[in-house]
Amino acid sequence: MADLGNILLFFLFPASVFTALTALVAGITKRRGLLEAARRGAYVAFGVTTLAVLALEYLLITSDFSIEYVASNTNLALPFFYKIVALWAGHNGSLLLWTWIITVFSAMVAYQNRHKNNDLMPYVIFIMAATMVFFSTLSFFISNPFDTLYQELGNQLQEFAVRDGRGLNPLLQHPAMVIHPPILFIGYVGTVVPFAFAIAALITGKLDSDWTHTTRRWALTTWGFLAAGIVLGGKWAYVELGWGGYWSWDPVENASLLPWLTATAYLHSVMIQERKGMLKVWNMSLVISTYLLAVFGTFLTRSGVVSSVHAFSNSGLGPAFAIFLTIATIFSFALLLYRRKLLKPDEEMQSLVSRESSFLFNNLLFLLATIAVLWGTLFPAISELFSGDQITVGPPWFNNIMIPIGLALLLLTGVGPLLAWRHTSVETMKRSFGWPILGSIILVGILVGFGIRDGWSLGSFAISMFVMWTIVVEFVKGARIRSRHSGENLFKAVYMLSRKNTRRYGGYIIHASMVVMFIGFTGNAFNSETRAEVGEGDFFNLGPYTFTATQIHHSENENYSAETLELKMSRNNRIITTLRPEKRYYYASEQPSTEVDIYSTMREDIYTVLSGMSNDGERVIVQVYRNPFVKMVWLGSFILVFGTLFAMLPNLRESKTKNAVKSAAQGSQ
Amino acid sequence: MSYLAYLIGILLLGWASMPLFKKDSTWISLFMETEELENKKQRVYGNIADLEFDYAMGRLSESDFSAIRQSFVSEAGRVIQKIEDQKSPALMDRINQDLGKLGKKNSKQPKKQSCLNCGSENLPEAKFCMKCGKEL
Known about the structure:
The structure holds two protein chains of two kinds. Chain A is of the alpha+beta class. Chain A has 20 helices and twelve strands. In chain A, α6 crosses α8 (192-204), α10 (251-276) packs antiparallel against α13 (355-387) and α16 packs across α17. Chain B has a two-stranded antiparallel ribbon. Classes of the chains: A alpha+beta, B mainly alpha. Chains A and B meet through α1, α2, α10, α15 and α16 of A and α1, α2 and α3 of B.
């Protein structure tokens, strides 16, 4: 089976070279046969890679320990479920997954466009196939997951198998492991589709809005997957790493944030291109940067350039990635430079206070955020280059820069949609912003009354209030106008209103999700924690809560042994819950792992970690964190996914709608 | 097992390259100015719809609304005029006329010459009459 997988994986290389070449020649000669061959090439690449993935899965499930990857990432006692997901637990396997997702997307794009976009498609397929050539080279020649174990016997190398594998890293033995990496990978790889269309548009010179229309859904899907992947990563870190938080500005976390930032900027500025014909060069640059940053993120995790808890150890792929990135960067931006004359704006900016300018500010802020995160992430590598030492900039550095930028962006989500295109007068601004501002001021007053003095937090709450207010008003006002003319009740009107412009209202839902998440982020300012060494019967306090250690017990199964502390949590002598933080020791990997236990409400999380045992084994050291509003972050991410899905729904076609809006406009004249 | 893998790979690659050996045709890429104008028209309409929505939601004053709307409407007018101009009957007539002239010019044949002796018609380039043989 290993041979089968290996040979099929090998065939990906000729298949992607074939696809790239036929696609390129098809683009130049415009011959249908060549394009059809390129399309089939993409299907073949998908076919062989799928079979290779299945072969690796078979090896993992059947625990074939003659394969190095299987022996390094699984063991016999590992639950079946984790054997399946071990496909993306290690470097080689996850690289294969990356490669497989590209082939899936290439085949999908080739199939979706088989009857249209004939001028663009050859180059689209070419770009995707070129990326495939690169990843198939890495996957087969450098980091092959089908490599077998060898040992030296005299002068000869001989294959051998171990009796049991080293097992899956305990940190990865968590349900989020099932979905987090594939979702993030889909987000990363998905950036190649808009990129391929953008480059195809640049090559062919067909630079009208065709390519943005064709890739709109792809861009949005990719963005949604990236966002979901980032939040899932945070959730995983929160429950698995046991340090009480979900985001630490770790290089790998940053690497996933970077393409998301530029993709978000793009989703906004592309609207100006569609409406006004402006920012064409800028949008191209954003699409290109998003792709490059996605590849860069993959490079960062696998090259050993920066050290991170998530990174794979130095895998020797660094130089290959560096070359690929350099070529892609030079090629894309040279092409952009070459076509810059065709990308002239159709209109000029007219007023500083308008929807256009708010989009522009939004983009500037996202650019700033991207540069800041990129700088902070690369700083260790840059400092090593100049001073010989890796100097890491810590979370405080990032927070100092990113909190103001984040709040400014949040404020814009409230202000932007209320500004009219072209020009907004002071009078109408007063009318739109008056009540929300008053509401925020009152909220700040109340919060100060409750003793909150932290400026950033007050600002964040005030802005959240303001934005939420404006969003609700958007829905209610729109629905009122609609129901006045259609006679629908308010709920039906809200539904119909949003279904007939899913992009606009899906966007508002996503804005609302951001507010909810920001409330969660702001909660960080009020975190508190305590640490105690307790034996059975001891108790300690954190805030209004009392924690009593009722029992410490030891358990074992075939995968690991565990110490569990039963911690009774009470308030005013009323028992709220019993928490059971655990410390595990995995036999196969010979690694310890902490299993936190969290009591979570909308108000706060009580997060308990069993950090160690005393020497006599009678007492344990327990750490308790009280984190307000963490649940809002997860709740916000659900709303975000819902908003993204909603924005992807096709608009409800309804001839009456346009008339209703028109007559509404006339009615209020 | 490995033979099977080679077989699968080679068969699939063969299938992919089949279209290369078929009788082939090319597609023609058209870069249409009208298409671009049509897109522009849609964009202006979208802008007007947005503007009306913004106005209905109370985001701009009545004077701003009517001024901006007027500018959009005249822009739409200009675009439509361009599209219409390209298809107007007068223009079509003229084009047909020109084409007609062009056709005539091309088909305009040099005059036939008639024989001074017998009066029969001969080809313009003939040197001797087809009927009587006299020099023309």
